[in-house]
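#struct-pred

JT: dropping the chains for the assembly here, can someone run the whole complex?
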Amino acid sequence: LAKTTQPISMDSYEGQEVNITCSHNNIATNDYITWYQQFPSQGPRFIIQGYKTKVTNEVASLFIPADRKSSTLSLPRVSLSDTAVYYCLVGDKGNQGGKLIFGQGTELSVKP
Amino acid sequence: GAVVSQHPSWVICKSGTSVKIECRSLDFQATTMFWYRQFPKQSLMLMATSNEGSKATYEQGVEKDKFLINHASLTLSTLTVTSAHPEDSSFYICSALRQGTTNEKLFFGSGTQLSVL
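RK: done, full complex below.
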């Protein structure tokens, strides 16, 4: 199973762009990269998923270099409500039956 | 987006009793569901993989007789904490795997806070 490494915590201010990088050196060919957001006492919420290059949706962008050994979640113009823990996961149903192992995540604190 | 419903959201029980937690995929069928537990300020820890129509697969260190999992239909998995003790108090979260044409996505329930007195 691919292991992920993220910064434990990050601080930011409202209106700034936040980039959270995740390392996954042992990512397998069939693995996708998925990011989740979790608020206290709630289940994780899907943010974005990608395989390579760049993916963008209404809430975030995901940048994946050619070697896929890392990925960066970009949150544009964060607000106080973006304060949460962000998890980067890699996995593939074919290799793991969909099983995803959570790393420690990045606790993002957005200040006014 | 896909919705996974988890019930109850919180439960308080006496030591020695059993508690059942339900996880339902509301708008898709899920042959595979997962159960996690989470302690305060810690990450999610995978407990078991629930497969529709077959026995669950438990992670190392998780007692299968303690945490009974049943996945009788494509939209429902249940976790029963048997003979609960205070050390079983935790936040339990389920997830359901939605299969797509090229990839799969995991959607999570809102979690169940279990407090054992």
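JT: nice. Chain B has a mean pLDDT of 92. The interface with chain A takes residues 1, 4, 6, 32, 34, 36, 43-46, 49, 91, 93-95, 97, 99, 103-111, 113 of chain B (CB under 8 Å).
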